[in-house]
Amino acid sequence: MSYDNIVEQLRSNVLEVTFTKVNGETRTMPCTLVTSFMPSYTPKEATDVDQYSVNKTVIRAFAIDKQAWRSFRVDNVTNIEVLNG
């Protein structure tokens, strides 16, 4: 799957993404970009995020199980399942 395809799905769903971590371990992470699952943030934080260019090799998403932001490499994704419809 491509960066754009995964991000598009994350914006409207909770996904279970399985990927190989940099250290070689396999991780299955329920994650999303749906705002209702994320903590609120201040406008300054939004500005800070917006100033960076997009790196399409890595996706940053909100991990539901950890209640924190996590990232994964697109090339290391082995499986994606939609957890909600």
Keywords:
SH3 type barrels, 85 residues, five-stranded antiparallel beta sheet
Write up what this structure looks like.
19% of the residues lie in helices and 38% in strands. The protein is globular and about 30 Å long. It has one domain (3-82): SH3 type barrels (Roll). A hairpin with a 4-residue loop joins strand 3 and strand 4 (68-73). The relative contact order is 0.31. It contains 2 helices and 5 strands. The chain has helices at 3-10, 43-50; strands at 14-20, 26-32, 58-63, 68-73, 77-82. Strands 4-3-2-1-5 form a 5-stranded antiparallel β-sheet, covered by helices on one side. The chain is α+β, with helices and mostly antiparallel strands and 85 residues long.
Mean residue pLDDT: 87
Q: What is the ordering of alpha helices and beta strands?
A: HEEHEEE
Evaluate the radius of gyration: 13 Å
CATH architecture: Roll
Please tally the β strands and state the result. Answer: 5
Provide the helix percentage. Answer: 10-25%
| CATH class (first level) name | Mainly Beta
The tally of helices reads 2
Layout of helices and strands, plus pairs?
Elements lengths: L2 H8 L3 E7 L5 E7 L10 H8 L7 E6 L4 E6 L3 E6 L3
Antiparallel strand pairs: 1-2, 1-5, 2-3, 3-4
